[in-house]
Write a structure and sequence with these properties.
Oligomer: single chain
Distance between the termini: 7 Å
Structural class: mainly alpha
Largest sheet: none
Strand content: under 5%
Length: 196
């Protein structure tokens, strides 16, 4: 049972229009956004931030951004965001081997060193206390420029917000996200948890 009940998608028409973005990303408007619209300024600001963070300005692909989001959400334990991130990675063209082996990104041959550096950065930046250190910085600079690092940290920070929001709210998870979570993450114990 969520802490706060999501409102109808028609509650705030500006939010509804902005939320069309999620139909491409996920195939539905997330319940988290439907809850945020109890204060429409929050829902609108969140959607605009999401769009800005997920825009591609360099070599950080849409699929990699969603895998960065998954690693961040996995580190914090938010099952809702884990399922959303893996679903979005699939919809944005992540390779099947990446989707099937995201848990083993550090050792699986489907991942290259640049991807590993990005995903290690996500893991380190999502931990409390923060674990970004000189080694993480060195790995990043071997493969990515400063603008791309800013893009990655934008994703990690956005999902820090979402992980706190959805785990605290106990946001009800949508059927499509459940399907993706079970398909790609279920073999490692993923379940809906409190997000029923």
């Amino acid at each position: 049972m969520p802490l706060v009940t999501p409102l109808s998608a028609n509650h705030d028409l500006e939010t509804k229009e902005l939320a069309e973005f999620f139909n491409e990303t996920l195939g539905f408007c997330p319940n988290s956004v439907l809850t945020m619209q109890r204060r429409p300024a929050i829902s609108k600001a969140f959607i605009n931030l999401n769009k800005a963070v997920m825009a591609n300005e360099g070599r950080v692909t849409s699929a990699l951004k969603r895998m960065i989001a998954w690693v961040s959400s996995n580190a914090t334990g938010c099952r809702y965001c884990q399922a959303h991130a893996i679903r979005a990675a699939e919809r944005y063209g992540a390779e099947q081997e990446h989707l099937d082996n995201i848990w083993e990104y550090r050792t699986h041959p489907a991942f290259n060193d640049a991807e590993r550096a990005a995903l290690d950065f996500s893991l380190a930046a999502s931990q409390v206390p923060n674990a970004v250190d000189e080694n993480i910085k060195k790995q990043l600079y071997e493969h990515w420029d400063e603008g791309e690092i800013v893009e990655m940290l934008g994703v990690i920070s956005l999902f820090g917000y979402l992980n706190r929001w959805n785990d605290s709210m106990g946001t009800s998870i949508e059927d499509g996200a459940v399907e993706s979570g079970e398909q790609y993450l279920g073999k490692h114990g993923w379940e809906k948890g409190k997000h029923v």
